[in-house]
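User: Sequence recovery, please. Input:
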């Protein structure tokens, strides 16, 4: 806490001031690496700051100013991060969007604020912006692109390369040497850092403008609480529109001088991570599950000797970690077994997946399966759970290395106050809490009533201050018998199974609970190949009796840990995954419950009327944007 206070008192209260500090004091240190055509290119803090300044000056020439936004669209790229910082220097709104954002979503952003310019990754994203611009009365005047391939012969108005933009900016800065320093110190702590959006589970996403005081307060709290240290090596692979990426790859990176490594493509993240071996890694539970599946598949395909060694040491390490989590101590030979296991099994596995240097490993966004959580800790990766949301600039609670429990998210970070109101809602107070929803005074007043952020999450504090998150308050519901439950809590536990990707629990106002599930095509497909189960498509695989048995095991496991009146009775495996392009989930894979219940009303009715099966005609959106139909008769299966 002392260190966090020291940092704050140094006068580095804005992103621009921190960039100036980094360039002058640590100018030769590596700020960023980006992989291009198989080669890692390094950028020092001095060069990074200069490029941000060139971009800011260029954007100012194009009319970007306070009150105007710049859309950031694409996968993680160094120049897109620089663009976000440049817009913050100007006091404008840097507005990152998910790479898969639809035309409708971008048009929604245009309706919120004037978007003076867009910085796009490549031709695909430029085409999307041009199409929106042609269809909208409020156009985006300037489009700057990073990757030039395919755009050489485009003649659209306002379209230019990143190099052309920074050339304009450099010329402007060179006219007066004082402009560089003025730009770095123009914005204040209350000026915008980033314009993000809520997940939009119950309607259109709400605009969330985090100011520079907010994002730096969150970074300082994280540092004081042990989330991250100075000079971390990170891999910037999370979606840029997700607050977790901004909190780490921009705010904390600038404050604590991280080296940010940008992978070549999303498809090369695993390989690039192995080359970088980051010291800090944050991933959603699904990513940890997928990596675990890959490890298990690799061991299953290895030699008999390697399999025996793996199970000998891994089984004992998992048992030891389980004892530790239950407050029990191991035998005196346990440390020796740990050393041998590290040399023969654990170390090589961590090295293969780029986890050999991990000091801080986190999971967040939703609950993680106990088996997955214990596996990584047994492997020697001190995986911890973290809790936060966009409205609090990223993170507000975290498990400490010494106080790890599967069912909690840890204690509030330094500088964050937590209390639970009479309805069971989690309330937060911190300098990292946002000022309010953009252009929505009523929603802002409701969210910040009484000076506390009403998170919308239900939970409770244990006697020692550990926070337990149950799910969304708005989703707390009751069965016909009056039993209170949170669907999301049960859904997350179903998804602990590697074979279930998504789930929707049904039962509000009914006598019993049922569910619709979407199997994980990759995990189930591999299982089917290993076990000789034939299939020709997702729709075919999802309805196999053998796959239903895998899914049923997850239901039986969940039923053991929930009260008897809430035990799940029947389920249906859907013939397609829930898809953000179909409006069934958000870009962060949160269930749009109302949409799903309306779309699958016939399936829900069949789950309760005694039917043995139900016919479904589901709409599927392909990567090309075209749509199709999946027609299937789905068995109603008993748990």
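Assistant: Recovered sequence (639 residues):
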């Amino acid at each position: 806490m002392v260190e966090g206070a020291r940092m704050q008192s140094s006068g580095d209260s804005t992103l621009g001031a921190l960039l100036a500090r980094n360039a002058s004091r640590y100018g030769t240190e590596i700020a960023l690496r980006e992989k291009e055509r198989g080669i890692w290119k390094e950028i020092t803090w001095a060069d990074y700051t200069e490029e941000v300044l060139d971009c800011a000056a260029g954007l100012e020439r194009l009319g970007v100013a306070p009150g105007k936004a710049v859309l950031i669209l694409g996968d993680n790229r160094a120049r897109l991060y620089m663009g976000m910082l440049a817009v913050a220097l100007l006091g404008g709104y840097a507005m990152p969007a998910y790479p898969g954002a639809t035309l409708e979503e971008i048009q929604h952003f245009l309706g919120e604020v004037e978007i003076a310019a867009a910085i796009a990754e490549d031709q695909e994203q430029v085409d999307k912006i041009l199409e929106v611009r042609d269809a909208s009365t409020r156009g985006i005047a300037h489009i700057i692109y990073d990757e030039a391939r395919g755009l050489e012969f485009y003649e659209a108005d306002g379209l230019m390369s990143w190099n052309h933009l920074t050339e304009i900016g450099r010329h402007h800065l060179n006219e007066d040497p004082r402009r560089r320093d003025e730009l770095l110190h123009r914005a204040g702590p209350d000026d915008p850092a980033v314009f993000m959006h809520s997940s939009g589970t119950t309607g259109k996403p709400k605009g969330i403008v985090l100011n520079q005081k907010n994002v730096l307060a969150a970074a300082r709290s994280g540092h004081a609480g042990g989330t991250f240290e100075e000079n971390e090596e990170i891999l910037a692979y999370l979606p840029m529109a997700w607050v977790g990426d901004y909190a780490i790859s921009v705010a904390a990176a600038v404050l604590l001088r991280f080296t940010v490594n940008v992978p070549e493509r999303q498809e090369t993240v695993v390989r690039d991570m192995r080359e970088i071996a980051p010291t800090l890694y944050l991933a959603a539970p699904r990513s940890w599950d997928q990596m675990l599946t890959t490890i298990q598949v690799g061991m299953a395909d290895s030699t008999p000797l390697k399999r025996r060694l793996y199970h000998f040491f891994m089984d004992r390490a998992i048992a030891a970690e389980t004892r530790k989590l239950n407050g029990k101590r191991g035998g005196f030979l346990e440390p020796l077994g740990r050393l041998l296991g590290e040399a023969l099994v654990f170390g090589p596995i961590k090295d293969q997946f780029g986890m050999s240097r991990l000091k801080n490993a986190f999971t967040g966004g939703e609950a993680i399966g106990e088996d997955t959580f214990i596996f990584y800790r047994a492997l020697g990766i001190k995986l911890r759970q973290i809790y936060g949301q966009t409205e609090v600039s990223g993170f507000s609670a975290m498990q400490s290395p010494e106080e790890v429990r599967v069912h909690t998210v840890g204690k509030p970070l330094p500088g964050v106050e937590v209390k639970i109101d009479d309805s069971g809602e989690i309330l937060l107070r911190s300098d990292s809490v946002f000022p309010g929803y953009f252009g929505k005074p009523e929603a802002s007043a409701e969210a910040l009533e009484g000076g506390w952020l009403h998170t919308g999450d239900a939970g409770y504090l244990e006697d020692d201050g550990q926070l337990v998150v149950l799910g969304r308050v708005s989703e707390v519901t009751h069965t016909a018998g009056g039993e209170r439950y949170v669907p999301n809590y049960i859904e997350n536990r179903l998804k602990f199974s590697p074979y279930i990707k998504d789930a929707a629990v049904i039962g509000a106002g009914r006598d019993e609970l049922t569910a619709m599930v979407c199997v994980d095509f990759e995990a189930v497909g591999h299982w089917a190949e290993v076990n000789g189960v034939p299939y020709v498509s997702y729709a075919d695989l999802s309805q196999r009796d053998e796959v239903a048995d895998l899914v049923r095991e997850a239901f039986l496991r969940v039923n053991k840990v929930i009260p008897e009146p809430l035990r799940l009775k029947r389920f249906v495996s859907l013939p397609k995954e829930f898809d953000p392009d179909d409006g069934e989930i958000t870009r962060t894979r949160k269930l749009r419950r109302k949409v799903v219940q309306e779309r699958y009303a016939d399936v829900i009715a069949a789950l309760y009327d005694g039917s043995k099966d139900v016919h479904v005609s589901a709409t599927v959106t392909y990567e090309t944007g075209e749509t199709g139909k999946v027609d299937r008769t789905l068995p109603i299966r008993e748990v």
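The chain is about 40% helix and 20% strand.
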